[in-house]
Amino acid sequence: MTATATPALQAVLTDLLDLGLVIKQAHWNVTGPAFRSVHLHLDEVYDEVINWQDEIAERISALGDSPDGRAASLSGSTIAQLPTGPLQAAAVVQGFAERLAALSASISVKFGVLEEDLPSQDVLIGIVAGLDKQAWFFRAEI
Ligand SMILES: [Fe+2]
Fold first, then answer.
1. Rounded to the nearest whole angstrom, what is the distance from the C-alpha of residue 85 to the centroid of ligand 1?
2. From ligand 1's centre to the CA of 28, what distance in Å?
3. What global pTM score does this model have?
4. Rg of the chain's alpha carbons, rounded to an integer?
5. For the chain, domain boundaries
6. Does residue 91 register a pLDDT over 90?
7. Which of 68, 81, 66 is nearest to 13 (CA)?
8. Measured in angstroms, how far is the CA atom of residue 121 from the centroid of ligand 1?
9. How remote is the CA of residue 47 from the centroid of ligand 1, in Å?
10. SS (H, E, C) the chain
11. Percent of the chain scoring above 90 in pLDDT
């Protein structure tokens, strides 16, 4: 039987896996006067996102369920996609401030579902705190 927390955790895992791909796409395609700082900042966020992916996936495993990290399953992601081609740094900064704030808000909505599973709730709370901090870092660059 699937643990109560698993669907919420899996939804966040899917978004974080996709967010990692979107971050690298921007990291590789960013251009403009702020190239270097944005390029480096994106890798800082990527490292955090990779850790969060692992924490969530292993929480799902610890609950006795199976995390789904297959590329084909990322179609369920709610992360806003990027266009192909070069990306202006200012638009990247604005876009990531918005993406991270939106993901923080959508994860926060799940706290209530996890009131019977505080360790899972704690994992999501930690991720939301990290997303809020990184959203602020991007906002501060605008
Ligand atoms: Fe790189």
1. 17
2. 7
3. 0.97
4. 15
5. 6-76+84-140
6. yes
7. 68
8. 32
9. 11
10. CCCCCHHHHHHHHHHHHHHHHHHHHHHHHEECCCHHHHHHHHHHHHHHHHHHHHHHHHHHHHCCCCCCCCHHHHHHCCCCCCCCCCEEHHHHHHHHHHHHHHHHHHHHCCHHHHCCCHHHHHHHHHHHHHHHHHHHHHHHCC
11. 99
Mean pLDDT (whole number) for 29-58: 98
d(CA 59, CA 52): 11
pLDDT exceeds 90 at position 1: no
**22: its two tokens:** 């979107």
Question: How many whole angstroms separate alpha carbon 122 and alpha carbon 44?
Answer: 22
Residues 21, 5: Cα–Cα separation, whole Å = 25
Identity of residue 112: G
What average pLDDT does the segment 63-73 reach? Answer: 98
Domain spanning 6-76+84-140, CATH architecture: Up-down Bundle (1.20)
Q: Is residue 122 predicted with pLDDT exceeding 90?
A: yes
Q: How close is the Cα of 27 to the center of ligand 1, in Å?
A: 7
CA of 34 to the centre of ligand 1 (A): 15
